[in-house]
Amino acid sequence: MPIRLVVLDVGGTIIEDRGDVPEELRKALAKYGIAATPAEISAWRGASKREMLRHFVQRQILSKGADPDKLSAEIYRDFSANLIAIYRSVPPIAGADDAIRTLRDRGHLVAATTGFDREIAGSIFRRLGWEKHFAAVVSSDDVAQGRPSPYMIFHAMEAARVDRVAEVMAVGDTPLDLQAGTNAGVRAVVGVLTGAFNRERLASEPHTHILASVAEVPALVAKLTA
User: Fold this and answer.
1) What is the extent of the structural domain holding 63?
2) CATH number of the domain that 36 lies in?
């Protein structure tokens, strides 16, 4: 059965990961007196950024009587505005644009899933002119739970009109990406080494393939489809 749909993570998979996201998350939390170490934030890479902020806020202020939802929303507004400004200059991963175009030219569908919200994801895709290549861009706002839950992948399948997980490949750079692909039961769960995690860490999660970068995805799809 051929691979019909390739679902790509965004930050660290098709857009460069320069460490901006965890640093902006840390700064946004610190501005409001919420402590989180780099290691703690790193464990949430690939997850919904809203869920992550809510986690750290609730952990620290429950005993103080503050409204965690209101504070989380305020912190997220600061984080989102800063990140949109930063991502105006963050380039794609080397070879990502060619890989996306090659997949489309060969008749495959391409979708994106991301822990960013719609506003941040939309700003990235509009700047790069990528909207026309993607059957769907599914953000953390579109699902009840972000990664490692499989719901973003299922939303991408629904938008692309692909109903068999055996026809889907999921690609990402974080352990949570691989967990989400595994939980979705898709045919290929592919890790790429262009994010913050090394081969050993990604290989410790259930997966089918580990690649150097998304640039190698078209060749893998062709191999699995042959």
Assistant:
1) 20-86
2) 1.10.150
Question: Around 129, how many Cα atoms within 13 Å sit in the side-chain half-sphere?
Answer: 2
Q: Same domain, yes or no, for 61 and 97?
A: no
Residues 6+ positions from 76 with CB-CB distance below 8 Å: 28, 49, 50, 53
Same domain, 128 and 65: no
**SS3 at position 68:** helix
Judgement on whether residues 140 and 193 belong to the same structural domain of the protein: yes
Place of tokens 């939980």: 183
Tens of pLDDT along the chain (226 residues) come to 899 999 999 999 999 988 888 888 889 999 988 888 888 888 888 888 888 888 888 887 755 567 888 888 899 899 889 888 988 889 999 999 999 999 999 999 999 999 888 888 999 999 999 999 999 999 988 998 889 999 999 999 999 999 999 999 999 999 999 999 999 999 999 999 999 899 999 999 999 999 999 999 999 999 998 7
Return the closest-CA partner of residue 125 out of 140, 143, 138: 138
SS3 80: helix
For residue 31, the cross-strand partners are none
CATH code where residue 205 lies: 3.40.50.1000
> What is this structure's pTM?
0.88
- Gap between the terminal Cα atoms of the chain: 9
- Which of 45, 61, 86 marks a domain boundary? 86
Based on the number of CB atoms within 10 Å of its own CB, is 163 exposed (0-12), middle (13-18) or buried (19 or more)?
A: exposed
